[in-house]
Amino acid sequence: MWNQPYLETCCRSALHRLTLVGQPGRPDGLKDGPCLNRLAGMGLARQRPDGRFEATEAGLARHATEIAPRKRA
């Protein structure tokens, strides 16, 4: 049974970009800023002291299961 909040397509894309950028993080003030803030409110991302966003462990897990699941061999 599905028990996680729904992610809009734009927020799914923002979470994917967070995983792609990795350690450098995404700067604040970009077009996906509202989604990054929404993800932070859900605990899937966080804003660092330098103002950049990065995925949390929960965000990485959500990305792995919902956005980019590995294909089974």
Helical fraction equals: 40-55%
Strand line-up of the largest beta sheet: 1-2
Q: Please write the string of helix (H) and strand (E) elements.
A: HHEEH
Task: Find the CATH topology.
Answer: Arc Repressor Mutant, subunit A
- Overall geometry: globular
Number of domains: 1
Give the N-terminus to C-terminus distance in angstroms: 25 Å
Q: Which class in CATH terms?
A: Mainly Alpha
Strand content: 5-15%
Radius of gyration: 12 Å
**Number of E-state strands:** 2
Helix-strand category: mainly alpha
**Biggest sheet character:** 2 strands, antiparallel
Overall residue-averaged pLDDT value = 89
Give a structural overview:
By secondary structure, this protein is mainly alpha-helical. The protein has one domain: Arc Repressor Mutant, subunit A (Orthogonal Bundle), CATH 1.10.10. It has three helices and two strands; from the N terminus they run ααββα. The chain has helices spanning 9-21, 33-41, 57-67, and strands spanning 45-47, 53-55. α1 (9-21) packs across α2. The longest helix has 13 residues, at 9-21.
